[in-house]
Fold this sequence. Notes:
Layout: E1 2-6, H1 15-28, E2 33-37, H2 43-50, E3 57-60, H3 64-76, E4 81-85, E5 105-107, H4 113-125, H5 129-132, E6 138-139, H6 142-149, H7 154-157, H8 162-178, E7 185-189, E8 209-213
Parallel strand pairs: 1-4, 2-3, 2-4, 5-6, 7-8
Helix pairs in contact: 1-8
Amino acid sequence: MHTIVLATQKGGSGKSTLAIGLALAAKQAGFTVRLIETDPQGTLSNWQRRRDADDLVVEPIYHAADIEPRLKMLADSGLQLAIVDTAAGLSVARAWKRPYSFVLNQTPIRGQRIGNAANALAEEAALDLTEVLARPLIVMRNDHQDSLASGLAVSEFAPNGKSADEIHGLWRWIESRLELTATINVLIDQVISAADGMMHVTAEISDETTTLTS
């Protein structure tokens, strides 16, 4: 089973909408998917209550000790992908010494901030951005919030829109790295809004785990 964990040091970075968008993109790509909610704020649960369809299951797990055994049970059941949405807080990806990459979410449509953010990430990571920075960048648009309020993923709300294209593109970027090793897990850690000026994501590849950060 592959596991994608989205975490951030700040709230309001679009982490939950990104989790939803990636979950639907993965499902449309043929994966069986479960959304795991560890944030007591309950954004995913509230979204599911507004949703008419039951094709994306949200499972709340609010105690840290319960997460690992539950993920093992899901893996044993044959689930292919778990996407974990976490509360804002300090990431432990670096403490685990994971290789990392970056996902820029809620970026402005144009301006110098994107380039400045990419340069800062490159300097911090000391790695080629081709390998470190997830593509495409996810631009801040109203249809992300509108889809969340409607109980939809952005690719359902505006299937022909640019936001849907970006989410599908990001999923393809992730999937291409999942296919490098059939048994790895993926952690997308610290999805931080480009508008905050603080962007950091990690990606790890080992025999069992891969990590991506943004």
